[in-house]
Amino acid sequence: MATRKFGVRGLGAVAAAAAGMAAGALLTLTAQRHALEALRIRLEHLERTAHSQKHTNLANQQRLHWELLSKAIDDPELAEVLDLFEAPVSAEQRRQYLFANALYTNALFYYRIGNISREEFFGYIRGILQNPVVREYWYVTRHQRATLADDSDEAEIGRMVDELLTQLEESDTDEWWVVGEPPSA
Questions:
Q1: d(CA 112, CA 56)
Q2: Which residue spans within 20-134 are E strands per DSSP?
Q3: What is the distance between the alpha carbons of residues 25 and 33, in angstroms, rounded to a whole number?
Q4: Mean pLDDT in the chain?
Q5: C-alpha dihedral (73, 77, 78, 84), degrees to nearest 10
Q6: Which residues contact 151 (CB under 8 A, 6 or more apart)?
Q7: 159-174: pLDDT as tens digits
Q8: pLDDT at 10
Q9: How many other CB atoms sit within 10 Å of the CB of residue 65?
Q10: What SS3 class is residue 127?
Q11: Who's near 102: CB < 8 A, 6+ residues apart?
């Protein structure tokens, strides 16, 4: 009988130990789940913060770019510093090219921060390319764009504008607003 009681007690102890281990494992899994959820929430917050910081940095860069261009547009001596064009240009042309640069980079900034879609950017650029000064600016700065990394977003956008300009010049229609195929993404 003593052996029999010991066997029942032994099984009870084993069952209690197993139940304790299962409860401990469940408690550990629950704690890990909560920790993973907290990490996921923190990661999402960090991603939002990084995205917001990128927009802030782009906005600061855009503001600084405009300030520098404004100074160069207002002061012919400063504008000479930015004269990186392939052919000699007059002071008036330089000011116009600097303003064309401001128009283009403003649109590029709007696209980069998501205020306009790629299709809207394309439509805007198609419109400003109707101006002969903007077209001249685009041609005389092609070597500057050639220095961009081929896989960069800005180089890809530049190639899109190059292609659009070629299509506009080869077009035999006066309806410029239908020339070119807007990007789908």
A1: 12
A2: none
A3: 12
A4: 82
A5: 90
A6: none
A7: 999 999 998 888 877 7
A8: 67
A9: 15
A10: helix
A11: 65, 66, 69
